[in-house]
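Quick one, T. Sequence first:
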Amino acid sequence: MIQNPILPGFNPDPSIVRVGDDYYIATSTFEWYPGVQIHHSRDLVNWRLLGRPLTRASQLNMLGAPDSCGVWAPCLTHADGLFWLIYTDVKRYGRTSTGGATGSASLRDFHNYLVTSPSIDGPWSDPVYLNSSGFDPSLFHDTDGRKYLLNQLWDHRPGGNRFNGIVAQEYSVAERRLVGRRENIFPGTAHGLTEAPHLYRRDGYYYLLTAEGGTGWNHGVTMARSRNLHGPYELHPDVTILSARQRPDAALQRAGHADLVETPDGRTWMVYLCGRPLRNRGTCTLGRETAIQPMAWGDDGWLRTVDGDGMPALRPPSPGLPEHRFAPAPVREHFDGGALPVDFQWLRTPWPDELFSLAARPGHLRLFGRESLGSTFRQALVARRQQSHCFSAATVVDFAPEHYQQQAGLVCYYNAAKFHYLYITHDETIGRHLRVMSSLPNHVQTDTFTAPVPLPASGPVELRVEVDEERLLFGWRLAGDEDDAGDRPWQWLPQQFDASILSDEANAPGQPNFTGTFVGIACQDMSGSGLHADVDWFGYRGRAYCADPKGLPVP
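Structure tokens:
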């Protein structure tokens, strides 16, 4: 039995490829650096995060990119002894002053690139620029050796269809560029918002898989086919082959943006994005995740879910491949290595040495105070994904601020407009103290602060967060602070914070929301002196249940 989602937490837009007995899934990372997550499995049940291929400025530089821009919808394929990775680097997405269809933004910047590598572990090449005509690029390797780029076509003209179909154009390996004429091969259906193309060849047909209905509650997977790559394409008899749009009771919602892979015995499996809404709020704090389930080809040559209901499956059957488990990720990271642990990322910049160091104080992550929380340029925030609706996270921060513009602490972060931040700071009246700043996107008062909690002038402070679905609590204690019984009790802030605002759905009108919630540590110094904070360890433990935080072990 498979437990969906197989890639929990923010892992949208999956692209899957099999090479021998190994399966790889690439997912979007948006403004988080390095770019593109690649997971590995040998049994389609157990997965591990292998790495992120876009690691240097020549491949990806997202400084200044707005929230929910950056790396969209990678496509990972294998041919001619190489791995081929296509991705979009989005530079602009959001409302403009020009009216457009349904009030959407008209002018946007989508730049599509190709990198290759002989090994999934790299080294990955510098990128080849392809086009900027739309997003969700996909590379198709035809049986005659020719290659074609497909992507969604963006139409900015007033009154037009923003999602103006799927275009295809040949790619010349020798010339390292697109050649020939661009053709619109599929206009989409009445569901609209046609995107996420993937093309396959089977039994004399070209099968085109797309996503439609938008990446929210109406999302779904559409299929069409043609004897000719350039069309015309006939629609699947059911049009949509997978969706939860008519089933608000389904555990997996927002299902769409899919890709197909075959096991060695010829069975077809579909990976797709999905969302798991909170029971009490209906918001997806984990963002868009990746699920998988078996599919079946009918006698009519069309693909359907195995039971024919077209629904995303929470617990599909196992493919029966030899089990291949991976060592579990450590609950606590001590930052003893020379590289940041694989689960952690930072925002936008290809120059992380400006933000943090693992060598300045051995055994610690040193964060250099940079711009304010939410900056789109140089922000010292290092974080990992929230991967379950209930979790515990804790850290210890050594930070000696001298000014209220100096801050460091533990943050639950969705984007610049949505976060809860438990931080240490200083002012001339209270001295060093602790408080919470919350950015609330859909409230009348968009930023709130708790009352300050005085702290000693120096010394490390342990910080902790407990999240049970929509309920978020913060706690703290002084490092080494024991009571008469030798225990080290936590001091809990009296407020209960709303974790549901850290979601795609909680939003100010017109702002894009395509990522998911991260939890990590941050440091700011708006005074310009670059004061640093040292982090000795960071712990994270997911839970399948709600609990009294006072009885939970420290991760």
